[in-house]
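Predict both folds.
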Amino acid sequence: MSDMRLVVAGAGGRMGRALIQAIAESKGLKLVGALEDARSPLLGRDAGTLAGLGENGIKLAADAAPLLGKMDGIVDFTAPSATVAYAALAAKAGIVHVIGTTGFAPADEDKIAAAAKSAIVVKSGNMSLGVNLLGALVKRVAKTLDEEFDIEIVEMHHNKKVDAPSGTALMLGRAAAEGRGIDLDKRKVVARDGHTGARKPGDIGFAVLRGGSVVGEHNVIFAGPAERIELVHKAGDRMIFARGALKAALWARGQKPGLYSMADVLGLKDF
C-alpha cells in the first residue's frame, strides 16, 4: 500500500510541529500539506524548518481546499471552530480526520458527529497510548468499587492552556462515570469554594492546576474508608501525543465512515 498522505492542521503550533517531526520519522506516512489560521504570522513559512527538520518544501497555508484531492487524512490539534470546519471538509472528501482538539461545545460535537457519517473520524481528548489505557483501567476500577470510594481527578498543565478541566480529565471522568453507570454531566463537581458542605456520595470531583511548562499530568483517585487507590499518568514530551495520533490515522485508513475513539484504535472497547 502507498504511503498515507497527511495534512497537519495547526502546523505552526507546538503539537503541529511535533506531528510534522513524527511524520518524518514514521514509515508509511507522507506530509503533503500544512495548515494554519489565516491570521497567523507563520503563513508561507516552511513546515520542515519550523519543526526543526530543515526545509521540506511545504509552506504553511490557510486554505485547505486545494489539498482535498491530494490527501488521505487531516491530523488536527487546533481550536473547536477550526476543527468543525475541517470536519466538514473531511466529510466532503470522505477521508480520515484525526481530532486531538479539546474544549468543544455540544453544538460542535453534533457537527462532528454529522461529519462522521461521511468521514472516518477518530476523536480523543488525549492521543497518548498510555492515557487511553489509563481510561480503560479507570472504568474497570470504578465498576469494581462501590460509592464508598469517592472519585477525584486532579490534572495539571502548562500555563498557556485555555480550557479547564482538560479534555483528558473529562475523558477520564467519563470513563469513571461509565464504570459506575452514571451521567457525568449530572454528577461532576468542577469547582469548590467557600462553605460547600460535605461531599455528596457518587459525585466525581475535578481539581485543576496550571503552571510552568507541564505537558500534562493526570491523577485519578479512588478514596475509600482507610485506603486509597491512585492511577497516574505523566506526559514528558508532546511526541507521545503525535505518535498516538499517527497510529490512529493509519488505523482509520481502512475503516468505514464513523466516529471512533482511541479505545477503538487500541482494541480497548471491551476491556
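Second protein follows, with its predicted C-alpha cells after the sequence.
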Amino acid sequence: MASSDFDTTQRTILSPGPIRPEEQSACLVVIHGAGLGQRVDIGESITRIGRDHACEMLIAHPSVSRRHCEIWRDGDRYRVRDLGSTNTTRLNDRVVEVADLADGDHLTIGESIVKFISGASVEAGYHEEVHQQATHDALTGYYNRRQFLEIVERELVRAGRANGALAFAILDIDLFKRINDTCGHLTGDSVLRQVTSIIRRGMRAEDVAGRIGGEEFGLLMPGLDPASAHAHAQFLRSSVEQATYTIVGLPGPVTISIGLASFGSAYPDRAALMRAADLALYEAKQGGRNRVVVAG
C-alpha cells in the first residue's frame, strides 16, 4: 500500500469501542522493587504479603516484615490491613492500618510497590497474560523452573507447620537425546508436548508440575504419604508408556524414569528433597529406565 493511501483521514462509523473482556480475579502485581513482576490473585481467603514463605505474596527483602499486611474481600469491596509491620503499610503514600482498596491503588511494602487491580479493570487481562508468560514454560505450559521452585518452597513451609505429608518427584524422558538426534528437534518438541499432556491428565488437582530442565520435570504432590506417592508416580509412568504417540519414525518406545522423595526429617528442606529425588532418578536410569525409584 502506498504511503499516499494514508494522507486522508477516513470517516468511520461510530464505534462503542473494544468489547470489554470478561471479569478476571482481582489481583496484586509488584510494579517496583523486590519481587518485580510477581502477580497473585485475590480469592475468597485472606492474601498475606510478607517475606515469610507461608505468605501468598512473598517479597524476600529485609525492608519487608515477615507478615507485613493482608488483603481480603469483604462483599463487593477489598480491604487491606497492616499487621504491625516495622516499616508500615502505605496506601498511595498514606500510612494506613485498615483501608478500602480501589482499582489502581498503590501499596508501598518496604521498598517495593504493589498495585491493586480489580477484576473489572481492563488491565486485569493484560497482567494475567504477562504473568502467564513470566511464570510458565511456553512449550509445555508447566511452571518454569523459577516459579516452580518458589512454589515448592512455600508448600514445604506449609507442610512443616501443619505436619502434613508432601512428596516430590523428578521425571525424565528416557533416551530423549536419541529422539532429537534421530528425528530432529521439532520431533523432540512434539514428544515433550505429548508426554507432558499425558502427565497433566493424570495429575491430581492439587499436584504442581514444573519444567526444571530440557526433558526433566518436577512434580510436587501435597498430601501424599510415601506409599500413595509411589502408587501415583507408577500410574503416571505407566500412562506415558502405554500412550499412543502421533509421531512417525521414533527410534523406540517413549518412557519416563522417576525419582521420588518424601518430605520429612531425612529430607527437611528443598535442597535435600531435590537432591534425594535426583539421586533416585539416577538410580532409575542406571537400573534400566522406565521405572520409579524411591529415595532411601
